[in-house]
Amino acid sequence: MVDHEGRVLDADEDLLYGIRGAGSAFGVIVSLKIKIYRLKKVFASVLIYHMGPEESMLADFLQRYQDLLDEGIPDALSLDVGVCKVPNAEKALFCSFLWASGDIVKAKAALEKMHNLGPIFMNTVAEMTVPAWLEAQSKATPPYGVFALGGPASIMVPAFDQEVRNVLVKYTTNLPPNPATLWVVHHIRGAALASKTNSSFAYREKHIMIEIIGTSVVEDFAEESGDWAVSFHADARRLKQTFEGGYIVLVAKGIEARKCFPDGHWERLQALKRKMDPENFFRFNVVGLDRTS
């Protein structure tokens, strides 16, 4: 890491603790050494479902998806589900599917369960190399919005209960016609649930993170997309089961950064910030973690 004086430092355990959760708040990370596992091929790509009547189809889909989560998803399977606007169509309910294991029989069984969640419009999931999957992902990913007046933001909930489903249906129904405006859900599970003393990422209990992206590729639509994201986040925050805080890189305006680091993590991060960046030089690297007093 390069610090505020331009020195290249090897991260010690204390700094690694901060980076694992607060990222580049302390300097510029220029090199990483990580353990990798050789995997020649993955079984992966994107599923797109027929939306149909949005209110009923999406609500039913989310209920069946919750049943699948309750049943348990194998550690080898990664799923991201969301809704966005796509060219030549109104809206798309999509699932990014990645099976990172060589057991294709189990992979196909997992894919069949995803097929059972709703009517499939398109299925591009196949066995492919990792570079081929990355290329397919880049083509399927919505465009990056450079104009952001109201997003991104995040909300964490324990499950897709009736209240959560109602909010997701509402903000799918009034989703702006902008390909860079969307919502997508992620979930923490498996080994990530284990509490870790060497990481400042605090949310280790099972939860679903709803990512709200209110950006626009053109300035003319930025206000509409921003208003949608702000309203979405406000309604979601009123849900009874919402977790306090959020993911620091997706925390909405008006949410204190300290709420993203409960259980003593905030105090330790602030001490580390004062030590590593006493002049607050990197105050814009991670917004909200710029306090040094």
Automatic annotation (TrEMBL):
Listed A to Z, the keywords are: FAD, Flavoprotein, Oxidoreductase
The GO terms describing molecular function are: flavin adenine dinucleotide binding; oxidoreductase activity
The answer to whether UniProt assigns keyword Oxidoreductase to this entry is: yes
Bilayer-spanning residue ranges: none
Superkingdom, according to UniProt? Eukaryota
Q: Which InterPro entries match?
A: BBE, FAD-bd_PCMH_sub2, FAD-linked_Oxidoreductase
Every Berberine/berberine-like domain range: 267-285
Cofactor field: FAD
Q: Which Pfam families match?
A: BBE
Annotated PANTHER family: BINDING OXIDOREDUCTASE, PUTATIVE (AFU_ORTHOLOGUE AFUA_1G17690)-RELATED, FAD-BINDING PCMH-TYPE DOMAIN-CONTAINING PROTEIN
- Its name, as the record gives it, is Berberine/berberine-like domain-containing protein
